[in-house]
Amino acid sequence: MTSQRPHTRRAVLIAAVLGTAACTTDREERPESSRTAQKNIEKSAQTDPSPLLSRTRGIPEEATVMWFSGTTGSGAPGPSTYWIDARIEVDDAQAEQWRSLCEEAGEPAAPDVVRELAEELGNEEFRECPALAAKLGDGQWEQRAWISNEDPVVVLTLFGDG
């Protein structure tokens, strides 16, 4: 009976060390990309503006759109978060009006979109604009917006529950 005690103590010690190591791992030290939900594309590129217009406000009906959508996560059962990444082209007057909201926007930044949409953006230079995101949002979906520095193009990302 005493011969099992050292093995039990060792097993408990190993479990405690492993448990402590797992608990003390600082999630904030991981790269940002490892904390971002994975976007799973469910459809190829879409150009019908209706689903995008129904989840936003202020996008002109005559805008030319291209968007991708899907859910986030690993596909495990449970509630899903839906996402849309969109490229929206408007007329020059609308683009200038939106740019006026973005005068305080920071340095040029690449929009945080799926690779398939990023490829469609080419070499356009964008600035993230929280004021434009707030203006275009419907209050039910989380959104981010980037506006092109030269072209009449906005990139919008949406996250929500359907």
Q: Would you spell out the secondary-structure blueprint of this structure?
A:
Elements: H1 4-24, H2 32-35, E1 39-41, H3 50-53, E2 64-72, E3 82-89, H4 92-101, H5 115-121, E4 126-128, H6 130-136, E5 142-148, E6 153-160
Distance between the termini: 60 Å
Quaternary structure classification: single chain
Calculate the mean pLDDT score and round it.
80
The neighbouring-strand order within the major sheet is 1-2-3-6-5-4
Low-confidence stretches: 15-35
Element string (H = helix, E = strand): HHEHEEHHEHEE
Helix content: 25-40%
Proportion in β-strands: 15-25%
**Biggest sheet: strands, sense, closure?**
6 strands, antiparallel
Give me the Rg, rounded.
23 Å
Count every beta strand, where a strand is a DSSP E run of 2 or more residues: 6
Outline: globular
Total helices: the number is: 6
Number of domains: 1
Q: Strand pairing plus helix content: what structural class?
A: alpha+beta
Structure at a glance:
The chain is α+β, with helices and mostly antiparallel strands and 162 residues long. It has helices spanning 4-24, 32-35, 50-53, 92-101, 115-121, 130-136, and strands at 39-41, 64-72, 82-89, 126-128, 142-148, 153-160. Residues 15-35 have low confidence and may be disordered.
